[in-house]
């Protein structure tokens, strides 16, 4: 009985600490980064996608100008959109505007981070460290939990 109780207590502590770690927002200047996640990758896939929500509570516009990760040769800021029944994905060379008082969601099928030349696929349960660089707020490190291959904002975090 004691062995079973200890195992349950250890599981509960591990679950609680992982929930707390993924539930925290990251703040830098007037920006709040919430619900970051990446999708798990299939073996051999050279690219992965990253998503989050960025809220600018200030009175000055800012811009996500770059991202990097030790898990990828490059990380690009991308936009995906439909144009005359054709899906177009392109890098936002000038970065992603985060207007004052606004929230921008990076999500599948829209704005996202594209991890290029990933040597080791992202596996569900891991975390991917990403450095985000903003034009005015500066740089911040954010841990992106790895959800399932089909993860979305709602299924990638324990609330």
What proportion of the residues is helical, as a percent range?
A: 10-25%
Output the number of helix runs: 1
Q: Give the helix/strand class.
A: mainly beta
Beta content:
over 45%
Q: Provide the low-confidence segments as ranges.
A: 1-23
Q: What distance separates the N and C termini?
A: 31 Å
Mean pLDDT: 84
**How many extended strands?**
11
Large-scale geometry: globular
Q: What is the gyration radius calculated from CA atoms?
A: 17 Å
Largest sheet: 11 strands, mixed
Order of helices and strands: HEEEEEEEEEEE
Oligomer: single chain
3D structure, described in words:
By secondary structure, this protein is mostly beta strands. It has one helix at 2-23; strands at 26-28, 31-39, 47-56, 62-68, 72-83, 86-91, 96-98, 103-106, 112-118, 127-134, 138-147. Strands 1, 2, 3, 4, 5, 6, 7, 8, 9, 10 and 11 form an eleven-stranded mixed sheet that branches. The two termini are 31 Å apart. The model is unreliable at 1-23 (pLDDT under 50).
Which key terms come to mind for this protein?
159 residues, 11 strands, globular
Secondary structure elements and pairings:
Layout: H1 2-23, E1 26-28, E2 31-39, E3 47-56, E4 62-68, E5 72-83, E6 86-91, E7 96-98, E8 103-106, E9 112-118, E10 127-134, E11 138-147
What's this entry about, in short?
The chain has 159 residues and is mostly beta strands. The protein has one helix and eleven strands, in the order αβββββββββββ.
């Amino acid at each position: 009985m004691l062995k079973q109780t200890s195992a349950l207590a250890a599981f509960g502590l591990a679950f609680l600490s992982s929930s707390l770690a993924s539930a925290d927002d990251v703040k830098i200047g007037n920006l709040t980064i919430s619900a970051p996640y990446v999708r798990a990758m299939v073996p051999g896939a050279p690219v992965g996608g990253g998503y989050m929500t960025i809220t600018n509570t200030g009175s000055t516009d800012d811009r996500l100008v770059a991202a990097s990760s030790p898990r990828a040769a490059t990380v690009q800021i991308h936009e995906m959109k439909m144009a005359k029944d054709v899906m177009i994905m392109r890098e936002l060379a000038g970065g992603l505007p985060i207007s004052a008082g606004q929230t921008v969601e990076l999500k599948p099928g829209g704005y996202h981070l594209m991890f290029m030349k990933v040597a080791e696929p992202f596996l569900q349960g891991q975390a991917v460290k990403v450095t985000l660089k903003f034009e005015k707020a500066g740089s911040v490190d954010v841990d992106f939990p790895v959800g399932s291959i089909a993860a979305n904002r709602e299924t990638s975090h324990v609330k």
